[in-house]
Amino acid sequence: MDEIQLRTAKENLSQFVDQAVAGEPVVITRHGKPQVVLVSWEEWNRVSRSVPSFGWLLAHPPAGIEDVPVRTGRRSRRLPDL
Questions:
Q1: Please, are residues 20 and 28 in contact by the beta-carbon 8 Å criterion?
Q2: Could you tell me whether strands 2-5 and 33-38 are parallel, antiparallel, or unpaired per DSSP bridges?
Q3: What is the pLDDT of residues 35-44, one digit of tens each?
Q4: Order of strands across the sheet that contains 2-5
């Protein structure tokens, strides 16, 4: 994966778009720090569809109430019966 400065990306954008479309992401830096990654539309769609949103994860937790450990000790509280 190439890492290029923003100035270089501006001057040669077409070249880096072609590179991303060919399957090679490009990291664009500003003042030496990574800022963005240029990827193809196909790759963006693949990645954005495969990762669930935070809101979806909150609504559909992968664990049940039986998977949550009951705390022990002085400050423990009993979980309510559902």
A1: no
A2: unpaired
A3: 999 999 999 9
A4: 2-5, 26-30, 33-38
